[in-house]
Amino acid sequence: MIASATLDLRDAGLEPAAGSNLRTAGAAVALGSFGVTVTSVLYALSPPAAALPAQPFDQALALAGAVAGARTLLAAGTIGIFSDIVFAVGALLLTLEVARRGRGLGVAGWIAILLSVVVFTFVDAIVGFVLGPVAAMTDGAGAFVAFKRLFDSLFLLGTAAFGAGALLALVDDMRSAAPVASKPVALAGASTGVGAVLTAGACFAGFPLEQGVGISIGLGSAIFAALGLQIALKPR
Fold first, then answer.
1. At 173, which helix (H) or strand (E)?
2. pTM, to two decimals
3. Helix (H) or strand (E) holding 89
């Protein structure tokens, strides 16, 4: 009977170890996502030509924006890199837990989210610690252009990966017999994921939808903060 009960708990994904893993994962996702939300606000307070993958690229505006917004960009990068690491830990734990349950679509989604957070670690490092100092150099225009174009491409790549991952992970969760997110949060996250993929793709094609990219990341991180709290606080 004890063995049968243990199997039932495993089938439902509710054994004590899994519950502890989910609480830790949820707390990390919530804390990391909250930090990314704060980072997104600081990005929004910075000159868009420097803080977003502006289309088309304007070197003069980007240089001036990086110098003028050096303080907010530094704050964004500093908060962002540490928040990204915490978010990545939570995403990795959730990837392992979803894999343990044999849900391939969800695993693919959380891997994409994890990769997007890794990419954004580099994005935040560049914006906080490279663009401003290089832009202020008297002979740094060439290096600035190279780093800014790298920043733009990584920003768009990270946004696309996050959007695709959110869509896959949350659609899979809604189909699960034991979902970790409420349906409204899952629907909001999946919808934001679609927006992130579309706006990032449009920017890659040269359309000026960088504001949509920024909004997708800011809104998506706020939704994932709520998702992380739900995962961490859900009774098990």
1. helix 141-175
2. 0.91
3. helix 70-100
